[in-house]
Amino acid sequence: MSIDIVGISKNFGSFTALDQVSLTVPSGELVALLGPSGSGKTSLLRIIAGLETPDSGHILFNGEEATARQVQERKVGFVFQHYALFRHMTVYDNIAFGLTVKPKKTRPSKLDIRDKVFNLLKLIQLEQLADRYPAQLSGGQRQRVALARALAVEPQVLLLDEPFGALDAKVRLELRRWLRRLHDEIHVTSVFVTHDQEEALEVADRIVVMNQGRIEQQGTPSEVYDHPATPFVFDFLGNVNLFQGRVHEGKARVAGLELATPEHAAARNAPAVGYVRSHDIEIERDALDVSALEAEVRYVLSVGPLVRVNLALTDGHGIEVDLARDVADRLSLSVGERVYARPRKVRVFTEDYQI
Amino acid sequence: MNVAANMNRTNGKNGSNVSEPAWVRVLLTAVALGFIALFLLLPLGAVFAQALEKGWDAYLAALKEPDTLSAIRLTLITAVLCVPVNLLFGIIAAWAIAKFSFPGKSFLVTLIDLPFSVSPVVSGLIYVLIFGLQGWLGPWLQAHDIKIIFAVPGIVLATVFVTFPFVARELIPLMESQGRDEEEAALTLGAGGLQTFFRVTFPNIKWGVLYGVILCNARAMGEFGAVSVVSGHVRGATNTIPLQVEILYNEYSYAAAFAVASLLALLALVTLAVKSVAEWKINQTLVTPGSER
């Protein structure tokens, strides 16, 4: 089922959670709403579910007006960050709940419910835990039960609110890959909320980046990562270094570098900021040409597979560079050493103009 | 220094450098226990001792006295009427306060506390003012031959007023701590409002409800001040147990007075027992699933 979100606004008192948000979720896709806390992503998800009412705007399911539909009629599966399992029911009863509350006419027989629940238990690989209570499960197991419970009613849409947010790093990784595989199997239209860019990049078909109640950019993971539309998106996805400068008639000067920026052809000596990802900078011992910046090594940290180098430019401005471990080993930098930093990819944004 | 203290704590040793000296702990405990013995256990023992002073037969005879039986009956009727009313009110009020936000919410919370802050005598007088012969509705009630003050309805009304905070006060913090997630999950799974209440909300709060009901019941049976004002002390008709105790005591029938009083003391003991079981169960439901946020 496709979802159309048309001009949705929502205020909580004087706080604007959502400001005229419009978005289309195509049928069968797995879409991530990505943004910092307070960006409105959870409010949007809850409005789609019907747990929250928008101040204005419309929600359409399969092109049909659904804004006024009750939660129960929307046929959405909702997975909560803190699982929200019924604590006084066993795993079996939790999963069966949605089926047992159906009106008598449409309620499946006890046997059918049993079959269905055990199929779902098989899907989440927890068949042997049917009689446990939620308190007796680990976080990852609870979230899988919550997912099975949501899937039991065969929802048209699956909505997940920071589904892995309360789990530890390793379980989170496992579970999100499992979710991706599950989605490839059942193809139910899914929207999940996350503030973890890595999670969104890995799991989603499409990413919607949100900030301050608005959509900053939407697109495939590689689109938003490789071609960030706004400084915010650039900043939010990955580590980034900022260089102050100016642009004039398609030419930018940032941090002593000359760059061709045809997209800013109309700019007249406008202040600009150059954005460079920390892994898009090379470090060299010798200055080969003018496109490298002189710097001093302030400290070197190894972070798992990466080595993070902090440099001070001649003007005192600090930048961070992520090097692959083998590259760093070859360079074997020492603190206080004079080196040259060469940005490979610079993206220039003027302050008032956004592409 | 800090590290040493931490190590001590993590090592599970008694951590004497972060706690009070032993003699202070012993002294404080002794004072607390002594206080309880002097002001709670001693009077409680005295009630039973006095009640049984003239022997078991006298005790039973005192309880079988017609006026006393009538007082017991009236007390039970009052409790049977008050507790369900306040149970219903308490659950509805707690539900509204804990699960929704609406204008005037904090005002409602304050109102619920009102009976705690008003002297019971005043609570009784309010009803006399409204329903009494000289009150606002008095003449109309008399014209239609409806008796409220100095009759059973007045006693029930006054008791309802005095006891209505108990269930609500018990449930509000419990329901607030449990949040709305489970109810929202039930709604998205297609459950209606009543199904959600009976299958999700109520099982989570049932021990809290029991606790509230027990306290409410104890107070309903034991209320003196408000009931005394509206009752009129008609023997065998509008006396509840506490009023009967007072009358017997004023007539110097100490053994009978204490015998009747021992019923209330027993009620208190039963209340305490059920209350501690309920508290234990509540704590169990709070530590269970997904509440580790």
TrEMBL record, chain A:
Organism superkingdom: Bacteria
Gene Ontology terms: cellular component: ATP-binding cassette (ABC) transporter complex
Keywords of the record: ATP-binding, Cell membrane, Membrane, Nucleotide-binding, Sulfate transport, Translocase, Transport
Gene3D superfamilies listed in its UniProt record: P-loop containing nucleotide triphosphate hydrolases
InterPro entries noted in UniProt: AAA+_ATPase, ABC_SmlMolc_Importer, ABC_transporter-like_ATP-bd, ABC_transporter-like_CS, CysA_C, Mo/tungstate-bd_C_term_dom, P-loop_NTPase, Sulph_transpt1
Domain ABC transporter: 3-237
SMART domains referenced in this protein's UniProt entry, alphabetically: AAA (SM00382)
An example molecular function term from Gene Ontology annotations: ABC-type sulfate transporter activity
PANTHER family (alphabetical): SPERMIDINE/PUTRESCINE IMPORT ATP-BINDING PROTEIN POTA, SPERMIDINE_PUTRESCINE IMPORT ATP-BINDING PROTEIN POTA
Protein name: Sulfate/thiosulfate import ATP-binding protein CysA
Natural source organism: Geomonas limicola
Gene: cysA
UniProtKB/TrEMBL annotation, chain B:
Key word Protein biosynthesis present: no
Recorded GO MF terms: ABC-type sulfate transporter activity
Intracellular or extracellular location(s): Cell inner membrane
PROSITE patterns named in the record: ABC_TM1
CDD domains per record: TM_PBP2
Keywords in alphabetical order: Cell inner membrane, Cell membrane, Membrane, Sulfate transport, Transmembrane, Transmembrane helix, Transport
Role summary: Part of the ABC transporter complex CysAWTP (TC 3.A.1.6.1) involved in sulfate/thiosulfate import. Probably responsible for the translocation of the substrate across the membrane.
Protein name in UniProt: Sulfate transport system permease protein CysW
GN (gene name): cysW
